[in-house]
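Whether sequence alone determines local backbone shape is best considered at the level of individual chains. The sequence in question and its structure tokens are set out directly beneath this paragraph.

===
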Amino acid sequence: MQKFPMTAEGLARLEEELKVLKAEERPAVIRAIAEARAHGDLSENAEYHAARERQSFIEGRIAELESIIPSVEVIDVAKLSGKQVRFGAHVTILDEEGDDEKTYRIVGAYEADMKNGSISISSPLAKALLGKKVGDSVEVPAPGGARSVEITAVRFA
């Protein structure tokens, strides 16, 4: 069985999502389907079709979470330290062309959220940064061509 690295916070979010889907979302969509069925002809019943589509999404997500959660390997980021970029690190990089500085946290694939500054350990940026330290320049493959960034800070808090 393949293990997926993840922070304790990421695992807690997935477990909470699974709990909400099973305890709240699934029963609600079952009620919506029953209510839509009561309206009669199902072939032209938009409410029924929308509820069935929602049910399909919910059941698919539950199955996905139930397969991911047992395969998670929790990495205790609080015990990590050092100067090299590794899983769980907050890495500040400076785009050498545009002087644009950004900070990212390297996390597991199932907890990555670019909007919140978390990138997957399997992303091209994270792969390029892993093992490097402050002051290193790194070539990062990008859709518009490779770009060069410099690591300005690495922290594990």
Q: What stands out?
A: The domain at 4-74 is CATH 1.10.287.180 (Helix Hairpins). The chain has three helices and seven strands. The chain has two domains: 4-74, 80-155.
